[in-house]
């Protein structure tokens, strides 16, 4: 099975460097809408039989051009949203950024019980994200999931066989970056390509 994960297009909060994880979240910018439209060409050779989005509006807006061309209706799933920022929500200062990303590192070093201040812990994040990847993989043979940068990177680092925790520094994911995996939820996933580059 081929699973494709895509980060949403640029939002107004991305431009302001704000930790925007609440519902409904910021809209796409004009550039973000252009990025979403360009995904149609980037995915022209991809088989797609299901499109899944998070509860945040930016994933719906990003998926819309692909869905229209393919004649598919995006399915909103409850667990594909961004890792909640908690007390850091809508902040853009360096301390907030450092605290947000330090929590992800703590999940791999200290354990999934570590909680984002005012937010969720790693156990909760992986449970909800795994459940929705399983659902998408059960309902579709070639699903596309439009989700969020930190969520995709953190999930991939922990759940993909040929990606190690030390690889996290290599896995920056730009807006509308495409991640291609092969496998299934039972036997596991392997990373094929990260933003168009073959994964060695």
Concise overview:
This protein has helices at 12-16, 30-42, 57-70, 94-109, 122-139, 149-159, and strands at residues 2-7, 50-53, 75-76, 143-147, 178-184, 188-194, 197-198. With 200 residues, the protein is of the alpha/beta class.
Could you list some keywords that capture this structure?
alpha/beta; 16% strand; seven-stranded mixed sheet; 6 helices; 200 residues
Distance between the termini: 19 Å
Record field, number of beta strands: 7
What percent of residues adopt helix (DSSP H or I)? 25-40%
- Percent of sequence in beta strands: 15-25%
Summarize the SSE layout with pairings.
Elements: E1 2-7, H1 12-16, H2 30-42, E2 50-53, H3 57-70, E3 75-76, H4 94-109, H5 122-139, E4 143-147, H6 149-159, E5 178-184, E6 188-194, E7 197-198
Characterization of this structure:
This protein has 200 residues and is an alpha/beta fold. Helix content is 38%, strand content 16%. The chain contains 6 helices and 7 strands; from the N terminus they run E-H-H-E-H-E-H-H-E-H-E-E-E. It has helices at 12-16, 30-42, 57-70, 94-109, 122-139, 149-159, and strands spanning 2-7, 50-53, 75-76, 143-147, 178-184, 188-194, 197-198. Strands 3-2-4-1-5-6-7 form a 7-stranded mixed beta sheet. A hairpin with a 3-residue loop joins strand 5 (178-184) and strand 6 (188-194). 38% of the residues are buried. The model has no long low-confidence stretch (mean pLDDT 96).
């Amino acid at each position: 099975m081929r699973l494709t994960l895509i980060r949403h297009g640029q939002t107004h909060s991305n431009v302001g460097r704000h930790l925007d994880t609440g519902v409904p979240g910021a809209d796409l910018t004009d550039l973000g809408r252009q990025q979403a439209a360009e995904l149609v060409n980037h995915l022209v050779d991809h088989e797609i039989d299901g499109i899944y989005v998070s509860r945040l509006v930016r994933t719906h807006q990003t998926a819309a051009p692909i869905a229209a061309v393919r004649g598919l209706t995006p399915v909103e799933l409850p667990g594909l949203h961004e890792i909640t920022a908690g007390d850091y929500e809508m902040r853009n200062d360096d301390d907030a950024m450092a605290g947000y990303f330090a929590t992800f590192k703590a999940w791999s070093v200290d354990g999934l019980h570590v909680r984002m201040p005012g937010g969720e812990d790693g156990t909760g994040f992986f449970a909800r994200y795994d459940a929705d990847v399983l659902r998408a993989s059960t309902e579709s043979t070639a699903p596309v999931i439009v989700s969020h940068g930190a969520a995709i990177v953190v999930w991939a680092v922990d759940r993909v066989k040929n990606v190690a925790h030390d690889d996290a520094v290599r896995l920056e994911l730009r807006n509308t970056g495409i991640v291609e995996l092969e496998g299934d939820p039972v036997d596991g996933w392997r990373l094929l390509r990260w933003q168009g580059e073959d994964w060695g």
